[in-house]
Amino acid sequence: DSTERKCGGVSPRVWLGVGVVGVGLGLLAWSRYRKRKPQAEVIFVLGGPGAGKGTQCQRIVDDFGYVHLSAGDLLRRERNDANSKHGELINTYIKEGKIVPVKITVGLLLAEMKKCVAN
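Structure (tokenized):
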């Protein structure tokens, strides 16, 4: 049963500090289509810069045991990884003040969620 698996010592609930609603809806739709429980409970925190998303996410981690995934943190980690296939592209977008393509951001989030659920 996937609810018994642990990720960092907690159950596989994932808290995202970003508004990528399509990912959560996609996981929910897929799990309903497959007639099985979703592998992760995904919640999104939305807000502009300085709105307190990080603060609220940390409280939720502390109080409820969710795993916090930040799209910004994942993008920064990826761009600093010498072996990354998207690092240079991410760096260019960030330097130019542009939004990194959704396909890359969602791909990083999905990969991290899969790692979390697998552990």
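The chain is about 50% helix and 10% strand. The beta strands are 13-16, 41-44, 67-69.
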